[in-house]
Amino acid sequence: MSEDGHEQNGHENVPSRQRRRFPGISSRAYEHPADRSALVALRKLSGFDTVFKALSGLLPERSLRLLFLSDSVRVSDQQFAHLNDMLRDACYILDLEKVPPMYVTQDPQPNAMCIGLDEPIIVVTTGLVELLDEEEMRAVVGHEVGHALSGHSVYRTILLFLTSLALKVAWIPLGNLAILAIVTALREWFRKSELSADRAGLLVGQDLKASMRGLMKIAGGNHLHEMNVDAFLQQAEEFESGGDLRDSVLKILNVLPRSHPFTTVRAAELKKWAESRDYQRIMDGHYPRRSEDKDTSVSDSFRESAASYAGNVKSSKDPLMKLVSDLAGGAGDLGGRVRRGFGGFASSSPQDGPPSESANGTEQPPTDTPPRDGD
């Protein structure tokens, strides 16, 4: 709920607590660098909107709208009124002029999405509505409104269409491979857009604990008394740094078919951003405005994206990212690590020294290794 109990469409919002509003905020304020660079480039393309409007005739958008209208519940003052209040308030906080229609659809799987080419529509499942409390749900609604403000709904719709098309043309030689290549690229971008939308959800809810609770529930269900935020974030740390080069490859293979990043990773990324100077500046009222979007430099956005990726590689504890960083920096021990094989890239604690080697280069176990029973 917003900070002044404003009135929208004849309905007065009564805030439970004050929340800051961001008049004229550009989506660039909260977008992940990789997400932002792609969007800025697309927005700068001459005729981009015309091409996608022409493409809309091929996509099942009208069919989707009719489907949700006929077989879901449209959020309004009369239906799911508490969600309607959250939706209008999220649009007010992020200064989205037109409130997108929102539907609740029967599905036990907790999920939400923002789709549409001409106008975005937001869909949430009953599984999500039943799982989350009010503040957690507010962050989700803000997440979807963030998608709408960024224009993500266009690409999400195309991704859904191409995923469906790939299944239909699977029998055509090479045809499926071409579509899957595009789908894979779109998924990589969309995973970054999810990190952007998580930030928008935090700007709307302005309650990091609620955002964290929501992500934990999506991962582990409605058992908060059995979960702990610090332990949940520790899982992200273990996922990031654990294993060897083989595990790094498996991580990539596991994430490729997904449209969303892993939940623990999303939680860790959001907490990191919430503690950053960028977030504090937005909360203090210093953020890019939509009126400045047309003057945004594509090259500057690409440089920011490249710098972000380089920083992530340099600071990453993942064995594969360490290898990339070592190759870029010419690490002296790289040859030895390659010679020792995959195990040479396994994570080790600082107090553990490197494994000793005999004169012939074979690896020897540490001298203080205790004997195992039964050997």
Give a description of the structure:
By secondary structure, this protein is mainly alpha-helical. The protein has helices at residues 33-44, 48-55, 61-71, 81-93, 126-131, 134-150, 152-168, 175-205, 208-220, 229-241, 245-255, 263-274, 277-283, 298-315, 319-329, 334-340; strands at residues 7-8, 11-12, 73-74, 102-105, 112-115, 121-125. A four-stranded mixed β-sheet has the order 3-4-6-5, sandwiched between helices. It has a two-stranded antiparallel ribbon with strand order 1-2. Mean pLDDT is 74; it is low at 2-15 and 345-375.
Précis, in short:
It contains 16 helices and 6 strands. By secondary structure, it is mainly α.
Strand order of the largest sheet: 3-4-6-5
Cα-based radius of gyration, to the nearest Å? 24 Å
Secondary-structure element pattern, one letter each: EEHHHEHEEEHHHHHHHHHHHH
Q: How many strand elements?
A: 6
Calculate the mean pLDDT score and round it: 74
User: How many individual helices?
Assistant: 16
Indicate the percent of residues in helices.
Answer: 55-70%
What is the strand content? 5-15%
End-to-end separation in angstroms reads: 65 Å
Shape: globular
Main sheet?
4 strands, mixed
What structural class do the secondary elements suggest? mainly alpha
User: pLDDT under 50 segments (min length 5)?
Assistant: 2-15, 345-375
